[in-house]
């Protein structure tokens, strides 16, 4: 597992395009939407949380939809299987490295989005916490969809259809947690539910993704 994780981190860090494309999409999405709202402070503040969460959602879906394709095309995936490396280890390494390399830069860019939308510091903190608690669920479901569609081409829209029913509750509780943060703090019901969803998603999606990859190999 440690060797796999180190390999994934090296690949991600040596190829800036992997994390830079998602970061640029995130900032571009927020910028275009802010321009569409004519820069009016009241509208920007109302739309900030949904806009930032939609940007995060689209970034992670686009980033993780082909997470297994390079290893499949190069034959690395089959070699790992022949070396008795479990699919659970492969999936876990992909999720952890994806969070570090791709997701953390986006989380760190949320304050920039908050400035675009003229948010106070407390609201920016709430958004960063919601993204930190909810990102594992988004990644887990995205990886699960990618494992089901492994080896197939043009899967973006299908991947969204597969994951959308699971992602809606994540967004709902994230926005509820952001709204309650000012009065109830970090341990409000929305954030607790969001953290629970992330833990449940990881617990279900890691073995389910491993099983889907085993089906592909068979």
Q: SSE layout and pairings?
A:
Layout: H1 2-14, H2 16-36, H3 41-64, H4 69-74, H5 76-82, H6 87-116, H7 121-148, H8 156-184, H9 189-217
Helix pairs in contact: 1-6, 2-3, 2-6, 3-6, 3-7, 3-8, 6-7, 6-9, 7-8, 7-9, 8-9
Walkthrough of the structure:
With 218 residues, the protein is mainly α. The chain has one domain. The chain is built from 9 helices and no strands.
Quick overview of this protein structure:
With about 220 residues, this protein is mainly alpha-helical. It is built from nine helices and no strands.
Counted beta strands: 0
Mean pLDDT, all residues:
85
What's the number of domains?
1
How many DSSP helices? 9
Radius of gyration: 18 Å
The fraction of residues in strands falls at under 5%
Low-confidence runs: none
The geometry reads as globular
Note the run of SSEs as H and E: HHHHHHHHH
Query: What is the percent of helical residues?
Result: over 70%
Question: How would you sum up the major sheet?
Answer: none
Structural class: mainly alpha
Beginning-to-end CA distance, first to last residue: 23 Å
Structure keywords:
218 residues, mainly alpha
């Amino acid at each position: 597992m440690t060797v796999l994780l180190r390999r994934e981190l090296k690949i991600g860090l040596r190829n800036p395009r992997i994390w830079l494309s998602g970061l640029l999409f995130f900032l571009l999405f927020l910028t275009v939407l802010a321009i569409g709202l004519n820069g009016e402070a009241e509208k920007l503040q109302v739309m900030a949380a949904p806009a930032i969460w939609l940007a995060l959602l689209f970034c992670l879906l686009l980033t993780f939809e082909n997470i297994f394709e390079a290893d499949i095309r190069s034959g690395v995936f089959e070699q790992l299987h022949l070396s008795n490396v479990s699919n659970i280890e492969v999936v876990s390494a992909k999720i952890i490295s994806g969070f570090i390399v791709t997701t953390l830069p986006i989380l760190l860019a949320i304050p920039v989005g908050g400035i675009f939308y003229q948010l106070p510091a407390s609201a920016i903190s709430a958004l960063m916490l919601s993204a930190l608690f909810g990102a594992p669920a988004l990644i887990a479901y995205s990886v699960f969809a990618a494992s089901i569609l492994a080896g197939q081409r043009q899967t973006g829209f299908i991947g969204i259809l597969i994951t959308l029913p699971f992602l809606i509750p994540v967004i709902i509780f994230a926005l509820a947690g952001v709204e309650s943060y000012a009065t109830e703090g970090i341990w409000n019901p929305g954030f607790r539910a969001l953290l629970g969803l992330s833990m449940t998603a990881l617990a279900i999606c890691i073995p389910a993704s491993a099983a889907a990859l085993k089906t592909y190999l068979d």
